[in-house]
Every structure is written in structure tokens, then in C-alpha cells.
Amino acid sequence: MSKLIVAGGQPDENGRLLSITPESAGWEHVGFEAYRLEPGQTIEQETGDREVCLVLLSGLANVEAGGQSYERIGRRMSVFEPLAPYAVYIPAHDRFRLEAVTLTEVAVCSAPGQGRLEARLIPPEKIGVEQRGSGYTERTVRNILPEQEEAESLLVVEVFTPAGHWSSYPPHKHDQLDLPHESLLEETYYHKVSPGQGFALQRVYTDDLSLNETLAVKSGDAVLVPRGYHPVSAPPGYDVYYLNVMAGPVRTWKFHNDPQHEWLMTPGQEVPKR
């Protein structure tokens, strides 16, 4: 299996499905965990020197953070319901406790922080929803923690790609600190596929092809994107969801399209000949 795939599996005794740390990924910023919790099961963590965004992927939960309690948050039972999620932001040098009310799947997204902000609930009505692309590149984007909302490092977004469509497309990258043109952001993709026996395809590649992998990803797997372009394809018959976590030295998303496919951004332009 590719080193870029972190395989999901059955939950351990703590409900953890998978874990990505900066050390395990070989980078500096992004951390990610996914949990599936039975009713009454809990997660309790100190945030240390990292800020955290909890994303309620499915189910209902009670969350305590920053001296606040949020009761029975969550409203969708599947990431494939056309609803934005609930999320909770927790700063560095704090702690949180989450208790599942129903069968619950939650993502724990983290990145370096200093603790300058307050914990807060991010309800669905605060999450911007947009349709991006057109035709076979149309997909639904839900901006959970975009750069317009307060955080120190984290950027968090989820994307629903209908069967037969492409997303993160045309291929783009953000692996150079060359502002205002491009930012340097590590990124994880946490994939879900419906029906569950399906798969998604994701390519990760650089201009010089020193990194050039095409990955068949099953539901519950995560993909590491340390650098390069990273488009995703949803095969016919299978809808694909993914949760993106990004972080880097500067909290802004400035991307660079693959020049070979830039023509796709101009409808009606003649296909370039080689």
C-alpha cells in the first residue's frame, strides 16, 4: 500500500478509527484522528500546544470545552445527508470532553496554536455552502473553518462529489510559500464512499513527477498530501465525501493550477495541442 494512504479500520477500544500525527506523516503541522463512538462512549483530550476543530461527521454528542457545554449537537446521521455539520473549535492549552449520545463519528482536526482564541461552537448556519465547478466537475463544498473565520493555523472544509464527477479539479497544488500567489499547506483527505463497497481515485503528483501516485481509496481511508497536485474522482455509481484539513506556516489558501490543465478554466477555449 502507498505510504500516502492511512488505512481506516475497525475502532479500537477507545473508538479510534485512524490517527495521523505530524511525526507519522513526516511533516510539521496537520494532525487528524477519526473516531466511531457507541452511545455513552467518550473522548477526553488536552490540546497542549495544538488547536483543535471537532467535526461531528454523523450522530449526536455532548461536548464540553473552554468552560462551555454544548448538548446534543449534530443533526445528520450520515455524511451523505445534504446537511452541514456541527463543529467545535478548541484553542491550544485547553481541553475537551465529547460524549456520544447516539452512534457517532467525529473527526479531531489539529494544528499548532498558542491559545489566543476562545473555544466556540460552529453551528451549521455559520458554515458557508457553495457549488463549485460545472458539469462533471460540479461538487458541494462546505466551509467549516475557512480563513475568513478565526483560527491560528487550521483550515477545515468538507466536499461532496456526486458519482461520476471530479473534484479538487482542475488539479491544483499549494506547496510553496510564494505569497500572494501560492501558500504552503499540508493537507489530509478523509474519504467516505456510498455505497460503502465502492472506492475513490486520487492522484498525487508533482510537476517533475518525482511524486506520482494514483491511489484507489476505500471508504474510511485517509490520504496524505505533503506536496503536489491532488485531484479526486468519484467512479460512476459511487458518491464520494471527503473532509480536508490544511495547515502551514501562513493561514491562507492560495493555490496554483497545473499549467497543463489551466485551459479547463476558460470555457470554449480550444484544447491545446502538443
UniProtKB/TrEMBL annotation:
Its EC number is 5.3.1.30. InterPro entries: Deoxy-glucuronate_isom_IolB, KduI/IolB_isomerase, RmlC-like_jellyroll, RmlC_Cupin_sf. It comes from the Bacteria. One of its GO terms (biological process) is inositol catabolic process. The keyword DNA-binding does not apply. Keywords: Isomerase. The keyword Isomerase applies. One of its GO terms (molecular function) is glucuronate isomerase activity. This is 5-deoxy-glucuronate isomerase.
